[in-house]
Amino acid sequence: MSDDTLIAYALGLLDDHEAREVERHLESHPQDAARVREHLESLTAVVLSEAPEPLPDGAEAALLERIREQPSVDEDHEKVSAPPPITTLPRRPRARSWLALAATLALLAVGFGALRPLATDLWVGWRVNRYQARAGAVTEVLTDAGGERLGQLVRLTDNRLLVAMDEPPPRRQVYQAWEIAGDTLSSRGTWQGRLFAIDPLAANSTFGVTLEPPGGSAQPTSTPLLLFPL
Amino acid sequence: MLLDEQLIAHMAARDEAALVELHRRYAPYLAAMARRMLRDPDEIQQGVQDAFVKAWDNAHRFDADKASAKTWLVTLAHRLFINRLRGRRLTTVPLEQWDAPSQPPDHVERIHMREAVATLEPDERKLIELAFYQGHSHRELAEVTGTPLGTVKTRLRRALGKLQQHLKGGDA
Question: A86 CB near a chain B CB, below 8 Å?
Answer without folding.
Answer: no
